[in-house]
């Protein structure tokens, strides 16, 4: 919002404005949901009509019940209704009345109390008629005082006995019609003007058989040749008492109870017994709740008097549910339509008021009656109703009847509640049993542990399986060891025989070789072959020639067999025991599945027990059964059996509903045939014959009604607890801790320095483990980068366990595929989901389950657009123009009033259109997103995401819209809408819809320097109790803290100019004289101690942010976004600015700053621009600047003067010194 302020003087005031938030109670804020809840909890209005016999109670009571839409209760009508139903109680009442006996007082009182406390009376209230009775009046009055649906208003019809006596004496009974008429139907009554309220004369009135009251009779019309009774037909008569024809008058009879003595007896009993009791009863009511009516008035006048007094009281009629597609309508019920399409059709069908669409109820597509009974079943279009502005879809005719009869118990909090009927599945140590027990405890649900219920069967199966494994392992191991021993024994024998043969062969070979060698040696030494070379050589002695002696044969090796090879192998053999122990450890982890039929039967049996126990609880305290099943295997065969049991329940339900529907059709057909027969048999000569088809249909329906529908064994929700890590690290860690199967003997994986204790996942560890401390995972197992301690070392045992885990997961995937194609017995799809157990406690898993269970009731937000909103508005207007809920008249009612109402509406519409055409030319074009047809959320046209996250009132884009709970929300950007669609409850509070808490006031003051920004900003901050922030001064403060001076051209004259201090004059003269005596030396002119200009300060290092601010102040360069974030964002996001509010002066300065604020969600609530002309600003800014300039120039001139005088004095001193040294 931009406000321009002219540059005018303003009186500065110092008063402060304290803002305080008024805390209002919750009762002050009533939204639609809270209003509905209060209405449903409010007691319905109940009436009791009392008075003497034949004073008009029944006629008045029926008119009030019809107008007030409440239940009409009359004791004799109750008897007739029960007799018409032909039930056991009806037959008993019929026998009592036919035999002339009185109905027992206890029975009559019980029937009356049952009618008063019926479901219809709980919602619509009632009008009690037929009192007083002369028997049991005291008990009836005590019952009315103690029942929680006690009467709220008493309608007392008073009439003197003298006026009532002629009316009673004139009673005549029509035996053919069973009606009673009084004198007003037979004589010309006094001329009474017609009731001005009634536009159409009422139908003929009939007398009620119970106390002579008049009641409406249905007539199609009077015959043209009909003759009137006594009196002239042209004489005026009261519209409540149409004349009787001659035939009716001829067949009228006088009843014994209408004799004068019987009438006197009734009057006496009333005065002595009833009057005092009624007076005592009426004293218990406040005077305003007792309505007295004159019995001498006509029925229409009495009714008008009562309704006039009721309209002045704080009571309203009951609100009946509205059926969108009644059977009598010709409109076809949409079938096989999507839920969203059906809701769009019903939203504008006979709307309650203009632009008041029927909204989706919190039950959405679920039937509220079935959900109250713990069953999830989608409703149908033919049973759709509208109630309290919401759409409800009922699932069957029985549910529809229950809802129409009394919708309150199905809608009162804590409804809607999803029943806890779930099953948890998980591998060993996944925690399924612990979570199941926790859920059952907190939801007060029954815990069904199939492992415990089937423990005997599982134990027997496990024992048999282990015995089989043991036997097979023993047999196989014994055989293996025996074969190994045989092989070893054969090897020993073979080796022994081989050694002996080798030794003998070796001995033979050695002997042969030795003999051959000796022979060769002898030949070599023979004289024939080798004569001596010298004669002196002596010949060898022939006796010394060597002779070969063979080696003796080797001895045979003794066959030595170890004793262990000779021992028999039994099951006690160590190797056999070890093999059996190892096999059993592997067999322990193998899941055993019983017959699938056992699981399904056991679940059905347990649910039947729960249902029976629940039926033993009183109905008022009975609640739907909730249960949690644990121990179900993942095998698809088991779930198929459970689905088969669910199909049996579906078949029983279908049979029951079909039978009841056939009974209703038979009733309708029998009624139609009876009406046709009555039309054909006008004289009533033929007796009514029983209808065998109807009797059979009634008997079948009665039988089906008494048959209870078993509980559907298929869980509504199925959760699998799984380890989401690809290598199942958490499950393996838990299994190893437990010593699960073969893992108990596996060595522990060496702990690494970077590992953490159990249940704490490690990700992206910094330390690099060495090769000795790590073990690679199997090649087919992906690494998860999550490690627990302790963990088993890799090996075949680990691979075996992982293989069973993978098989469990694969089997569950098959089951989920099967469940995805199935529905419950009531047609609701089975829902299943996986819960990752990694890093979560049981409470975390419980919360996830609770959230998942409520998903069917979550109402999602949906994306919309301005065109869709406009189309909805046009649809609403067209639908309401065709007729709203108030214009709807059920078929069969009079059409005259409807036609007149339509004519009046058309005239009013034409006049309104003419007036609108005249005003359209004068009115400016409006924003299409704004108007009375928009159902906006709490944030109106502002973005709820920006309000929640940034505490700003950011206007929404008319083209970026979303709808939630029937309300439209506008958003600043597409990203904001995406956040809202993802989690609408984060930005829209549930419960009492209090007005939104507006963020603190944020005001921007802009304008040229000298326009009064700072002055007015400080004044506004003082008055509004805001924090004043000057953006230019804020930048200077940053520089002042770093450079210790202000930066900018406007501060150039603020630099201090020191007073010039000249050097010592004598010293300067001495130096000048010395230089004169020594001309070769260089003498520099002494510099003054002070300068005419200010000295430059040393450069101080600045960071990028500070340098950007300095450049902005000196050279007017744009500040980067990073610097603006550091400077400005804290005023919107941190305390104390978020709570107190701010006045930001001097920002934004240009269009780029405005764009930055918009993109950064820094929205002010008000922007004040100070407008001033140059001729107005110059007198403000120039004088102080001119003063500073004059002061600076005066200081410069003073320094120059000091320098001139010093130099003049120096010259005089030098002149005097030279004159002394050289006087000539």
What can you tell me about this protein's structure?
This is Adenylate kinase 9. Keywords: Kinase, Nucleotide-binding, Transferase. The protein is flat. The two termini are 91 Å apart. The strands form seven sheets. The chain has a five-stranded parallel beta sheet. The chain has a five-stranded parallel beta sheet with strand order 3-4-2-5-10, sandwiched between helices. α17 crosses α27, α19 (455-524) crosses α21 (574-588) and α33 (1031-1043) packs across α35. It is an alpha/beta fold and 1224 residues long. 46% of the residues lie in helices and 9% in strands. Among the domains are: 32-171 and 258-312, P-loop containing nucleotide triphosphate hydrolases (Rossmann fold, 3-Layer(aba) Sandwich), CATH 3.40.50.300; 321-416, no CATH class; 1002-1076 and 1101-1187, P-loop containing nucleotide triphosphate hydrolases (Rossmann fold), CATH 3.40.50.
Key terms:
single chain, 1224 residues, alpha/beta, Rossmann fold, five-stranded parallel beta sheet, 40 helices, 26 strands, 9% strand, flat, Adenylate kinase 9, nucleobase-containing compound kinase activity
Shape call: flat
Amino-to-carboxy terminus distance: 91 Å
The CATH architecture term of the domain at 32-171 and 258-312 is 3-Layer(aba) Sandwich
CATH class of the domain at 32-171 and 258-312: Alpha Beta
Mean pLDDT: 79
- As a whole number of angstroms, the C-alpha radius of gyration is 54 Å
Output the strand order for the largest sheet.
1-26-23-25-24
Strand tally is: 26
GO molecular function: ATP binding; nucleobase-containing compound kinase activity
Organism: Schistocephalus solidus (Tapeworm)
Biased composition (Basic and acidic residues): 658-676
Biased composition (Acidic residues): 211-233, 531-541, 893-926
